[in-house]
Every structure is written in structure tokens, then in C-alpha cells.
Amino acid sequence: MTSVEKARVRAESDARAHGYYLHPDPASLQDLLEGLQRNEERYGYPSCPCRLASGAFAVDRDIICPCDYRDPDVQEYGYCYCALYIRKDVSEGETPITPIPERRPPAKQARAYDVAAETTNDKHVNIPVTLLLTNTLNLWYCKQCGYVCFREDSPYLCPICKAKKEMFAPLSITVQG
Questions:
Q1: Cβ atoms of residues 83 and 23 within 8 Å
Q2: 66: closest CA among 5, 10, 6, 147?
Q3: Residues with pLDDT less than 70, the chain
Q4: Most exposed among 36, 39, 83, 113, judged by the fewest C-beta atoms under 10 Å?
Q5: Helix pair 3-18, 26-43: axis angle to 10 deg
Q6: How many CB atoms within 10 Å of residue 145?
Q7: Element (H or E) spanning 150, and its range?
Q8: What pTM was estimated for this model as a whole?
Q9: For residue 129, is it within any domain?
């Protein structure tokens, strides 16, 4: 099985698990899957084929496919930003695929550009010290199901119970010595 076939199997499995479909146009779908595969070879993780990845996992965590923005985009527009994942009505041609607004916050996009500018080649990334000092990771707790993640900010939707961002709270840990 080729790398692109593996990307297809992974995307199809994820789509089925969430009640989604994949892009209906075979050529567009192939392009998206090849983009995922190329990004996985380049960075070691399948970042969105429709967004600039920095090559730094901590910076790109929100755009690892399926990205944090997929579910809200599919819910609101019928498909994600790159239209890899789509709803049934889009798959059946009832809703056209047109450009949608980018949900990724401008500050996160800018960080990706800053880190990418520091890239010496596709395999090695020099992350500026200022980025490391200003990028604070937190523990987030889903008040609905108990899911915990360690990230800069909470996900748009809980990957377990689909609770909205507002259901996440920061989690504090006290270490006693």
C-alpha cells in the first residue's frame, strides 16, 4: 500500500467515524491526499494540505489533519476549509463547495510564517527563542466528558463528546513535595 493509499484509508476511516464523506471530485481528493502525504513525509505529521505548516509540532498542533477547525466548518458550511471532509448534502451535490473563511486565528497563522521563515530545510526547524517564551501551553479539561489536553488553547470541539470550546476549563496541577 502506497503512502497516499494509507492517507486515504486514514481519512476514510475518520470520515466514517464522524459521519462525514470525502471530497466528491476524484482529482481534487487525490490532490488533497497527496498533500497530506507530502506534509507527513516533510514534517513527520499530516498537517492540513490547505494551510502553511511551520514544521514545528507545537506550533502546528491545531492544523494536524483532521484539524481543530474541521468540525465547526463542516457544521456551519458543510465542509472543512480544504473540503477534504464534507457533509452528506455536499456529497450529493445539494450544497456547492465554495471558499469559506479561515478559522485559524491570525496570530497562529503569523507564528507559522515566522517559524517557516526560520526553516533551514524541510527536516530541521529553528524555532525562535521569543516564540518559545511566548507560547504557553496549558492543560484543558472538558467539563462534559473529562477529556484532558495539553495545548496553547482549548480545541473548538472536544474530540470525544463534541462539546463546544466553552465547555473547556483550564486545569491546575499542584505538586506537593
A1: yes
A2: 10
A3: 116-137, 173-177
A4: 113
A5: 110
A6: 13
A7: strand 148-151
A8: 0.73
A9: no
